[in-house]
TrEMBL record:
PROSITE patterns: ATP_GRASP, DALA_DALA_LIGASE_1, DALA_DALA_LIGASE_2. GO terms for biological process: cell wall organization; peptidoglycan biosynthetic process; regulation of cell shape. Pathway: Cell wall biogenesis; peptidoglycan biosynthesis. GO terms for molecular function: ATP binding; D-alanine-D-alanine ligase activity; metal ion binding. GO terms for cellular component: cytoplasm. Belongs to the D-alanine--D-alanine ligase family. It comes from Pedobacter yulinensis. This is D-alanine--D-alanine ligase. Cell wall formation.
């Protein structure tokens, strides 16, 4: 019997446009022989299923169900494809936990913690072979620039502490650029993280659990044409050189796999996550950047590239994810 799956997309942040594209890739690659899929759009206006041949139908949020032609549809599980809030910050996970409906992502606690870049680094920073850049976490804009200048050395990265897709992020190379960068980041979030720049090669790697075993996808090396890997570089085809598998020695590859497996375990992750890191230029040390617990699945996203490099069709990969997180 087919599993009835809700594919949840949209969201309430600027990342909703990426979520819609991710959901389109997922929908095209879910096995129709195994899954009956209903794509549901979540927005400020409500939660709706939009069949091609009729008006949109509102989801009953009391039990997360749909009524179609007098038939009540309940879901065996949810494939969450919402980047940012409320899909990646634990809110939806808590809701589905209360309804006892399984889902494809990390649980509510892990999702909430990993949405906060500063808290995440505090948890993983003592893992063997893992390094983190010096940073300052800012909870209010007043006096923020002075705190940064007292604690850190230029250049810095300034970023919203809760968020993704590099929205609101800036690279600051002079004192004059700091205040505008802080203002930009505080427009996106009430907390801002400022980190010292680490010179090195940037990579991104997918990690997931399948049949009880943590597996690491081939890493992607990221060489942006822009100053850094910003929103435009992430989602504009051709704006970034992306090499999958990335150029690493056998020692580096083995070390990275050990470290990211440790991060996945330490944070109690579920489903597919993506971990971004630098290999420092002078030392080769692994510097943790961040973890994304609902990584993009668009045609330009890393995870589909890495799955292809592993030699596995996306349909088979998504089936593995659903079997592991929702059950057969």
């Amino acid at each position: 019997m087919k599993k009835v799956i809700a594919l949840l997309t949209g969201g309430t942040t600027g990342e909703w446009v990426v979520s819609v594209k991710s959901a389109a890739t997922i929908a095209q690659n879910l096995d129709p022989a195994r899954f009956e899929v209903y794509k549901i759009m979540l927005s400020q206006q409500g939660w709706f299923y939009e069949p091609a041949d009729s008006l949109k139908i509102e989801v009953d949020r009391n039990d997360f169900s749909l009524t179609l032609e007098g038939r009540k549809i309940r879901f065996d599980g949810v494939f969450i494809a919402i980047h940012g809030s409320p899909g990646e910050d634990g809110k939806l996970q808590g809701y589905f936990d209360m309804l006892d409906i399984p889902y494809t992502t990390c649980d509510a606690l892990t999702s909430a913690i990993t949405m906060n870049k500063g808290y995440t680094k505090a948890i993983v920073r003592d893992l063997e072979e893992l390094f983190v850049a010096e940073s300052v976490q800012l909870l209010q804009p007043e006096g923020a620039a002075a705190r940064v200048q007292e604690r850190l050395k230029l250049p810095y990265f300034v970023k919203p502490n809760n968020g993704g897709s590099s929205i609101g992020m800036s690279k600051v190379k002079t004192d004059r650029e700091l205040q505008p960068a802080l203002e930009k980041a505080f427009k996106e979030d009430s907390q801002v993280l400022v980190e010292e720049f680490v010179s090195g090669r940037e990579f991104s790697v997918g990690v997931f659990r399948s049949q009880g075993t943590i597996r690491v996808l081939p890493a992607t090396e990221v060489i942006p044409a822009n100053e850094f890997f910003d929103f435009e570089a992430k989602y504009t085809p051709g704006a970034t050189e992306e090499i999958t598998p990335g150029r690493m020695s056998e020692e580096e590859r083995a070390r990275v796999e050990r470290i990211v497996t440790g991060v996945y375990e330490r944070l109690n992750c579920r489903g597919i996550v993506r971990i971004d890191y630098f290999l420092e230029e002078t030392t080769g040390n692994f510097y943790f950047i961040e973890i994304n617990t609902i990584p993009g699945q668009t045609i330009t996203s890393f995870i589909p590239q890495q799955v292809a490099a592993m030699g596995v069709p996306l349909t088979a990969f998504y089936t593995e994810l659903l079997d592991e997180t929702i059950g057969r």
